[in-house]
Amino acid sequence: MLWLLCLDWWVCLWMERGKEMAVSGSSSTSSALSSAFASISGIVSGVQTDEIIQKMIEVQSRPINNLQSQQALLTAKLTAWQDANTRLLAIKTAALALLNPFTFQSRKAVSSNSDLVAAQATAGASVGSYTFRVISLASAHQMASQAFSDTNATSVGTGTITIQVGSGPATVVSITDANNTLAGVRDAINQANAGVQAIIINEGPANNPSYRLMLVSNTTGTAGAITVNANLSGGAGLTLSTVQAATDAVLQFGEGSGALTVTKSSNTISDVIPGVTLTLKKADPNTPVTVDVRGDTEAPKSAVKTFVDAVNSFNKFVKEQFRYDPETNETGTLFGDYALAGIQSDLMSRLSDVVVGASKEAMALSQIGITLSATGELVVNDAMLEDALSNNSEAVAKLLGVVGTTTDDGVTFLSAGSAKASSVGYAVNITQVATRARVTAGAAMGDTLSVDETLFVNGSEIKLKAGMTREQVVAAINAMSGTTGVTASLTDANGEGSGNYLTLTTTRYGSAASVSVVSNVAASGGGTGFGVVTVTQLNPAGETGNGTGAPGQDVQGTINGEPATGSGQVLTGNSSNPNTAGLSVLVTSTTAGEHGVVRITRGIADAVDRLLAFVINEKSGPVQTAQESLNTQIEDVKRNIEEMQKRVDANVEALRKKFIDMEAALGKLQSQSAYLSAQIAAWNNAKK
Q1: How far, in Å, CA of 8 to CA of 658, rounded?
Q2: Is residue 92 one of the residues assigned to a domain?
């Protein structure tokens, strides 16, 4: 401890000086002594001890300053890696957008005459040009009553009004003395939810009104035609006649004897051109309308440019990190970092790859207008990219994303999972096709229901009216299929073919699908034949003991000879498979056996996504590893700084104490010197 030896030397030196001062008669007071303990300012010794201590602190703090500089550099590197992580995450997010199949399936539909027809396309719509004529529009049936001079006074009588829309169930509206005016009838019909809207119109002048009750079908087309039976007595009665007939929309494709006529009940048609919704506005049999369905390039072009911008942002960041100025010797924060250099190298390698299995028109980024400039920046040729997306979006999708194709119409590619790319394809073999669960009533239905009946199908209530035909019962049940998950049909007793037995079948395929039904009418009571005992696909016998049923089955089979698991109609390669892990296909075929192959193409965006999934992995990726290492180093430096600061503080405290002791000793010597001087002076005076 050289500095302590120096301190001892200074203390001894100044103590000697104190002795000299004592001999020479220097004086001090006890107050000066106590102030020396409060502030080491050399009051007794005259030495600027605070300055000496400050200088010694500065000397001892130099290693701390070096550590603080090291800590600042490490923190800057950590911040830089966090920035790198953010930019890499942006690339991965942009890559995922390119992996979304809908990105390249965007479509737009353009009508040649928007006054007649508007068109809108959804993703995946069939590209092409479709020409047709609008022969007629669909219209809702409208009926009006005879004229009334008032709405709240004249009685129409009492009884019932039965309303039926199309082949749906009939609704009976009761008319009593409480609601037997025109306004009362209107309100009663609207409250009955009979499938029509009742309104009152005034066709006369203000001083001589003429009111009519009008019924407007809620359903356009002939399927929404209204049938009304007003069984009223004791009043003016109610007679309704058609003021606008129910008509269907009619489209004509082609000309002459070979023309195809399409009839629809609505003016909004979405099941004629796949993926395209037509909205008919006006009929004009003499004017052909052409709807062009083409690829919408805006969405995929935007996704591609976002991806390119993200890559360029990262490359610009790396360039800044590896910056070196030979004149000043200044470098970027992560200059020479091999991990960052490796990440950039791997990324650019993926971007320059040729994709195996892609279309020959687009096997590399350069073929769709994306090239690497001399400065290391990706550049997009807008014209080439637009042309590629407009004329061959499927090829671009193969180049960038993950695309699967099948050779069998009964098998549809769903997702690749972790399956390896294969241009040869993976064979699909089906050993069991998927089926749906069903139950069939234990008793046959008559031509019509003889009683009102309520069915509870999968917990949902379906009300059936006496007099409904078998077909109307089927229609009423099917109208609720969106809620029940069940459709109805007429079969033989074992649920096959056609017949007079009501069969309920789940809309879903597979073992998870279920159906349950129970009625409030006995099986022999003139109803649907299900009876008052709940039946399910597993327990179908029911009240009669003759009901039949079957559970749904999942598809079973293999892909590439590797085991696969079925769920409904979806067959997925097991996660442990070496080649087809996670590969999913939809099997709609109704026959077992070999069903062609499914080919997988993994494009550039997929390669980048998989690379970055490793690189920025939060547990073991190199970016995380770099950040963890820096955090550890920062904590180590911080701990060293704290420990060193503690030693400096302890040394300073010891130094202060030595100076205080020195000042105290000098003060005591000065007191003794003053006393002796006074005694000597008194002695000398006494001798005189």
Answers
A1: 8
A2: no
DSSP E strand stretches across 435-531: 438-440, 453-457, 460-464, 486-491, 501-506, 516-519
Question: What pTM does this model have?
Answer: 0.68
Give, for 475, the enclosing helix (H) or strand (E).
helix 470-478
The residue behind tokens 């790198």 is 84
Any domain includes 78: no
Residues 528 and 464 in one domain: yes
Q: Which pair of tokens denotes residue 626? A: 């770099």
What is the Rg, in whole angstroms, of the alpha carbon atoms belonging to the chain? 47
pLDDT band at 688 (very low <50, low <70, confident <90, very high): low
Do 272 and 226 reside in the same domain of the chain?
A: no
Both 501 and 527 in one domain: the answer is yes
**C-alpha–C-alpha distance, residues 434 and 25, integer Å:** 118
> How far is Cα 165 from Cα 534, in angstroms, rounded to an integer?
31
> What's the CA gap between 597 and 605, in Å, rounded?
24
Q: What pLDDT score does 532 carry?
A: 96
3 state SS of 135: strand
Q: Phi-psi region for residue 16, left (φ > 0), alpha (ψ -120 to 50) or beta?
A: alpha
Which pLDDT value is given to residue 17?
44
Summarize pLDDT for 158-197 with one digit per residue, the tens: 999 999 999 888 899 999 999 999 999 999 999 999 999 9
Q: Domain containing 208: what range?
A: 140-244
CA dist 225 and 337 (Å) reads 78
> Which of 85, 188, 181 has its CA nearest to residue 625?
85
**Closest to 430 measured CA to CA, from 598, 601, 599, 600:** 598
- Chain-wide mean pLDDT for the chain? 89
Q: In this structure, is residue 542 part of a structural domain?
A: yes
Burial of 484 (0-12, 13-18, 19+ CB in 10 A): buried
Helix (H) or strand (E) holding 63: helix 49-99
Pull the structure tokens for residue 411.
């098998």
pLDDT tens-place string over residues 299-315: 899 999 999 999 999 99
Buried residues in 217-243 as b, exposed as e (16+ CB within 10 A): bebbbbbbbbebebebeebbebebeee
What are the CA-CA distances from residue 683 to residues 26, 115, 680 (Å)?
Answer: 19, 135, 5
pLDDT in tens, 552-606: 999 999 999 999 999 999 999 999 999 999 999 999 999 999 999 999 999 999 9
Number of domains in the chain: 6
* C-alpha dihedral (331, 334, 336, 341), degrees to nearest 10: -130
Residue 2 banded pLDDT, cuts 50, 70, 90: very low
